[in-house]
Amino acid sequence: MNRPWNFAAGPSTLPLEVLQQAAAEMCDWHGSGTSVMEMSHRSKQFGRIRDEAEADLRSLLAVPDDFEVLFMQGGGSAQNAIVPLNLIDRTGSGRADYVLSGHWARKSWTEAQRYGDIAVAATAEAPAEIDGRSYGPWCWLPETSRWHVRPDAAYLHLCANETIGGIEQTVMPDMAALGAPDVPVVADMSSNILTRPVDFSQLGVVYGGAQKNAGPAGVTLAFVRKDLLGHAMPHCPSVFDYASVAKAQSMFNTPPTYAIYMAGLVFKWLLAHGGVAAMAAASQRKSQTLYGYIDSSDIYENRVDPARRSRMNVPFLLRDESLNASFLAESEAAGLLALKGHKSVGGMRASLYNAMPLEGVLALVDFMRDFEARHG
Ligand SMILES: *Cc1c(COP(=O)(O)O)cnc(C)c1O
Question: Band of the pLDDT at 376, cuts 50, 70, 90?
Answer without folding.
Answer: confident
